[in-house]
Structure formats: structure tokens, C-alpha cells
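The data layer described in this paper is built around a simple, fixed record for each protein. We quote a single record here, exactly as it is kept in our systems:
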Amino acid sequence: IEARHLLYVTVAGRVLEHLGALSPPESAALRDWDGRLLQWMRESAQGRRAEEADNNIALWYDLQCMVYAKFCGDEQLVADTVRRSLLPRLARQIAPDGSLPREMSRARSYDYIAFSVAAMALLSRAAESAGIPLWDIEDGDGRNYQAAHDWLLDMTASERRLVAPVARVLHRTGDGGADGDALQRVVDLSL
């Protein structure tokens, strides 16, 4: 999960390409590196464990796969990740009331919930590039990313003690503050 920071390498490559600061062989080498990283993520035992997780780890794994696939020109993998991984996880990860039961069972649960919701926001942006409105897609009983977001907001509003920890996590993970703006630009520029 800590490899999510490698998303910055991908966006730096996009920016450098846009500025004309990378030669075609350098661009090709960066795409090759991202492609090999993506292959390792999808084929290694560590990557498969991350993909099969039913918590924030799988969300961050999917985001990385989508961004690297897009950078490497594999639009089909972006769409397949949403359909094969993200949509089936809705029922496993999000309760009908929007809570995240697997994250709730952990110590410092609201940190993990905020971390998950941050990933959901970025995944939704990434899915938009494949024409999939992931944020609002429901599992039939109201389970969707919007519901998880709203549940977290309701909890922080009703339990004032949660506001500072949740704000800290969102700032640190990319859904708020300067770091949040930077990570949002990473996803936008990578797509």
C-alpha cells in the first residue's frame, strides 16, 4: 500500500512529456517501467494478496493499477478493474448504511475509514476516464462510495472527537490540503 506514492513518478513523467523534457526513448522507458510495475502488481503473491483484500489495501491497489494501465495505454484494464474488482467489492466493503464494517473492526478505525474514502474519491476520478460514474453506482441497496462518504461525514459531525483524526488522515492521504490537491492532480494528470 505504501507504493501508492509511486503515482507521483507517473504524473512527473506525464508533466515532463507535456513540457517536452523527455525524449521519446525516455518516455518509452518510463512507460516500460510502469508496465513492469503493473505486471508485478498483478502477478506477484504480494500483489494478489493486495487485490484480494477486502479493505483499503485493495482500493489503493486498484487505483495504482488503473493509473499505471492508463499511462501505459491499456484502457481496457482500466475499465476491467472497475467491473471486475471495484463493483463486486461494494457489497463486501460497504454496508447498506454506508459504514465500512471491515475497517470498523480495526484499531483507529476512523483513520482507516477516512483512508478508504480518500481512495474511493480518487478511484471515482480514475473511473470517469473510462466513462464509468463509479461514485454514484449502487449495489441495489444503497451501497456506494457516496454513501460511505456521507456516513463518514455524519459520524464526524455527531462525534466531534473524530474531526481532527479524520482531517489528519485525509490531509496525509490526498483528500484534503496541499497534499490532497497534489494527489488529486496526480490522478487527473495520469488519466
Confidence is low (pLDDT under 50) at residues 174-179. The first helix runs from residue 7 to 18. The chain has ten helices and no strands.
